[in-house]
Amino acid sequence: MFTGLVSDIGRIVAIEPRGELFRMRIACGYDSGTIALGASIACSGPCLTAVARGTDGGQNWFEVDVGAETLARASARGWRVGTRLNLERSLKIGDELGGHLVSGHVDGVASIVARRDYDGMAHFDIRAPRGLSKFIAEKGSVSLDGTSLTVNGVEGDMFSILLIPHTLAVTTWGERGSGDEVNIEVDQMARYAARLAEAKV
User: Fold this and answer.
1) Residue 34, Cβ neighbours under 10 Å: how many?
2) Alpha carbon of 60 to those of 42, 57, 85, 149: distances in Å?
């Protein structure tokens, strides 16, 4: 479980095909000695398992195996050496819940339609994947590339978000623009509310 509050930006430094999955090494600012093998780390949305860790030339890193489901459902299919990722380690009991509850189970890939910058902030118009727009509500929460964000407005399958300078500076959102794809995870409460409503029919 995560909060959608990014705590580091990692960078893919190696990718090794292994049959139907890819072993990826991600350089990070975390002390590798504190990363337990088997620990969950959200990597721009998807919850991935640390299968190796270490330090190379003073640079900490961990490795994950990215399987077929993640490649099919998330933007991981486009990750390359050099790709920067929003990282968050799993929530611990007693941690501050400053964002919203995020599972790390990505629902699909959304597309950035437009970006407008002003006063150091950035306004994004985003198109939700088919079937997910019903879970997105104005002033509700959504996780995009592992970042907990508030929805400003919704119209059809389009919704908008506004990012403050701090968020742009400490995540990969400063690099995002029109045409980019982002991993989306809808709010869990919205998902279950919709399921309960369907069950009453």
Assistant:
1) 10
2) 17, 8, 15, 28
Residue 66 CB neighbours (<10 A)? 20
**Three-state DSSP state, 120:** coil
Report pLDDT digits (tens) over 113-127. 999 999 999 999 999
- CATH topology for the 108-199 domain: Elongation Factor Tu (Ef-tu); domain 3 (2.40.30)
The amino acid at residue 14 is A
| Alpha carbons 193 and 201: distance in angstroms, whole number | 13
Annotate 27-91 with DSSP letters as a single string: EESS-GGG--TT-EEEESSSEEEEEEEEEETTEEEEEEEE-HHHHHHSGGGG--TT-EEEEEEPP
Q: What is the CATH number of domain 8-89?
A: 2.40.30.20
> Is pTM beyond 0.85 here?
yes
Q: Which residues contact 56 (CB under 8 A, 6 or more apart)?
A: none
Instruction: Inform me whether the pLDDT recorded for 201 exceeds 90.
Output: no
